[in-house]
Design goal:
Length: about 100
């Protein structure tokens, strides 16, 4: 399933900047960045539980927020994009 992860981390302190980098790095382990604080992650249920748990531990609940959007298996019919496209379809074959 495709999960959209969005986050807002308060970076008014050095600790906040550190949390922001850690959140972004963890999201990169599961998907691709499509905007500054937005990641598309193709995960199964178990991976999703682990990802949520890891991200919850990284943020300050009083200053930061994370949102998860489940787009499901038919996510392509729910996605509309305009402008510069810098991402790839994670369900297609990838040749490196």
């Amino acid at each position: 399933m495709l999960i959209l992860v969005t986050y807002d981390v308060n970076v008014s302190s050095p600790e906040g900047a550190k949390r922001l980098r850690r959140v972004a790095k963890e999201c990169q382990n599961y998907g691709q960045r499509v905007q500054n604080s937005v990641f598309e992650c193709v995960v199964n249920e178990a991976q999703f539980v682990v990802l949520k748990s890891k991200l919850k531990k990284l943020i300050d609940n009083n200053l930061d927020s994370i949102r998860f959007y489940r787009l499901g298996k038919n996510w392509e019919s729910h996605l509309e994009s305009f402008g510069k496209i810098t991402s790839f379809n994670p369900m297609n074959e990838l040749i490196i």
